[in-house]
């Protein structure tokens, strides 16, 4: 996992990058003293007669940055960054504390990996663990349950393993929050909210 030092008084944004430029962008942001978050996951790739272990971005083509929006050109001038994610051309900040929740959750020694974007199914709530309080969707399959977290705005999903007793069914519907308050579909200002999808794989 790559990230820079924490600073207060700034807001988090999702920066969309050119394909396969996430690590280069992160290196450049570090040199420019811009706070960023680039979660990585490990995978094994076969190459000819051997296997190679690789660290790849968990959210392909995205790096999260913490900046004063008035200084956004420091980010937009970085080679490989296309734009800051928002609505109608206006960058939208994540709610206070939401990226920190994601960092804590992904830093809790849980296996995380990319998953095809997914947001529909039977709704459940995570009641224990690092993602406690997040709402999601349960897909009945087999073996160890896995939680698929889907970020609506950037159309990206990841999955983590959970114990079945960490989730409970819910019956209420969750509306999309005002886009000026959150770039994610959310429940009570949680980062992923109703975009979290719980599956058993």
Unreliable parts: 179-201
Largest sheet: 7 strands, mixed
Cα end-to-end separation: 25 Å
Strand content: 35-45%
Rg computed from alpha carbons, rounded to a whole number of angstroms: 17 Å
Rounded mean pLDDT score: 78
Supply the number of structural domains: 2
Number of strands: 16
Shape: globular
Helix content: 10-25%
Order of the strands making up the biggest sheet: 10-14-13-16-12-11-15
> How many H/I helical runs?
3
- Give the helices and strands as they follow along the chain: EEHEEEEHEEEHEEEEEEE
| Class per helix and strand makeup | mainly beta
Task: Describe the protein's architecture and organization.
The protein is mainly beta and 201 residues long. It has two domains: 2-91, 2-Layer Sandwich (Alpha-Beta Plaits), CATH 3.30.70.940; 98-200, no CATH class. The chain has helices spanning 22-31, 73-76, 98-106, and strands at 2-3, 11-17, 35-38, 40-47, 50-57, 62-67, 81-84, 86-87, 90-91, 112-115, 122-126, 135-139, 145-151, 156-161, 167-169, 196-200. β11 (122-126) and β12 (135-139) form a beta hairpin. The chain starts with a strand and ends with a strand. 36% of the residues are buried.
């Amino acid at each position: 996992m790559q990230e820079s030092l924490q600073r207060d008084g700034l807001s988090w944004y999702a920066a969309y990058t050119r394909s396969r430029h996430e690590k280069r962008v992160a290196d450049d942001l570090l040199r420019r003293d811009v706070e960023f978050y680039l979660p990585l996951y490990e995978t094994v790739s076969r190459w000819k007669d051997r296997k190679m272990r690789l660290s790849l971005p968990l959210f392909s083509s995205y790096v999260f940055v913490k900046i004063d929006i008035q200084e956004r050109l420091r980010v937009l001038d970085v080679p490989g960054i296309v734009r800051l994610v928002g609505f109608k051309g206006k960058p939208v900040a994540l709610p206070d504390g939401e990226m920190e929740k994601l960092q804590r959750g992904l830093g809790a020694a849980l296996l995380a990996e990319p998953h095809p974007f997914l947001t529909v199914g039977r709704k459940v709530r995570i009641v224990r663990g690092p993602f406690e309080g997040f709402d999601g969707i349960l897909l009945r399959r087999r073996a160890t349950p896995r939680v698929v977290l889907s970020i609506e705005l950037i159309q990206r999903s990841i999955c983590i393993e959970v114990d079945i007793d960490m989730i409970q069914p819910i019956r209420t519907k969750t509306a999309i929050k005002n886009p000026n308050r959150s770039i994610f579909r959310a429940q009570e200002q949680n980062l992923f909210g109703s975009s979290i999808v719980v599956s058993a794989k």
